[in-house]
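Table S2 (text version). Query chain:
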Amino acid sequence: MRRIIECGSVVPGCNFVSHGATDEDVLMEAAEHVRATHGVDHLSDPLKAKLRAAIRDVDETK
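Corresponding structure-token output:
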């Protein structure tokens, strides 16, 4: 099953969405986005935890 993270679930108002085969794929893409778009140079452990908690399965029936 594919995985997804929507940045807006962590950073309200952001429309970025990352899809991937694994949590790690999604996290790597989301981390790059956070650095480039939101200017966060270091992902703290609490931010990493928020990102991990926001990952969910893709509803492929839609």
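Notes on Table S2: Residues 23-38 form the longest helix (16 residues). Residues 3-57 form one domain.
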